[in-house]
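Q: You know discrete backbone vocabularies at least as well as I do. I have my own habits and do not want them to colour yours. No explanation is needed for now; the record alone will do.
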Amino acid sequence: MGNGLCAQGREVKTVIIIPAYNHSQRLAEVIAACLPLKIPVLVVDDGSTDTTWDLLAGTERITVLRHRDNLGKGAALLTGFAHAAKQYDWAITLDADGQHHPEDCKQLLAAVPQGQRPLVLGVRQGMQDRKVPWTSRFGRIFSNFWVWAAGGPWVADSQSGFRLYPLPEVLDLPVKARRFQFEVEVLVRAKQNNISVLEAPVRVIYQGHERISHFRPFVDFWRNSATFSRLLISRFFSGIF
């Protein structure tokens, strides 16, 4: 595959996709940590208004796509998936805020069983630590339950952005959400469409640096609620109950 990592001893064509919105403070470090893995890196600038675009324009050895307007994290991921599916079989997504250890890409790839095409969810370890923002701890518990109630899998960290997606299968899922809610809805749609969801432990950094997050607790709580309501109604009327 020429990108340095394998799944269960098999070479696979994999790309790292990083959605970014006003993340100039941490993005250069995140990219620098990805490059030694020898996996191609694709960054989607989702309409940043800071210096993110200037930073990306001056960064070598990566591919950059750009939304002129901010369309949302889900939209940025889909743009990356559509571009990557022309060449790659898998996409590893990680956040631009520096909370992930890119080396843990190996954990995600190692979780793929021979001959299978699952979605692998990186379960962030140590999320109960007091240094982790309460919004992140509460949001995870809230989201985990409603993903399951809406017909998705029971998982430990439904809000983790560190994942391995099969391409092009993820593009065929009927996911409507285009912002943060994309990442919870895609879990439900994956199960409904017979794509297994597996989990692998990954590290998380919530201390030692200023983390830039655009998650707005109240606005996104209501958006999450609207997404889960839509999925619950869809599940009811589809006769799954």
Q: What stands out?
A: The chain has seven helices and nine strands. The mean pLDDT is 88. Residues 6-237 form a domain with the Spore Coat Polysaccharide Biosynthesis Protein SpsA; Chain A fold (CATH 3.90.550.10). The longest strand covers residues 14-20.
